[in-house]
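Review form for a predicted model. The reviewer records the input and the model, then writes brief findings.
Reviewer: anonymous (R2)
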Amino acid sequence: MCGPMIRFGKTIRKLRAEHGLKQRELAARLSVTPTYLSHLEHDRVEPSIRLLKQIAKELITPIEVFFWDSVDLPEQASADDKKACDLAKLVVRHWYASQPAPRRPQEASRKRTRAP
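Model under review:
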């Protein structure tokens, strides 16, 4: 039997690290405990779609990237399938990285309240 094909944990952990956030910091922003975030990052629990959207927003990453980046092919997948999957992940991440980054909601509201 093959394991889960979508592992959000590794993607959450990778993106959190790329943004220079500690587990405690991201957990506080998400209103979850650091222990729960650790369980998410180690694929012991799966995030709800609502929480996944919140994580994506906090990490300024489109939710689609989570789905693409979290795909984990079974061990018995062919080398060609694994290469194709890795290439698709790269294309998706590269495309989203080339798009203008949305600001976090707090940053956007602060900019609007400042006088010109």
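Findings: Residues 40 and 74 are 20 Å apart (CA to CA).
Further findings: The chain has seven helices and no strands.
Recommendation: see findings above.
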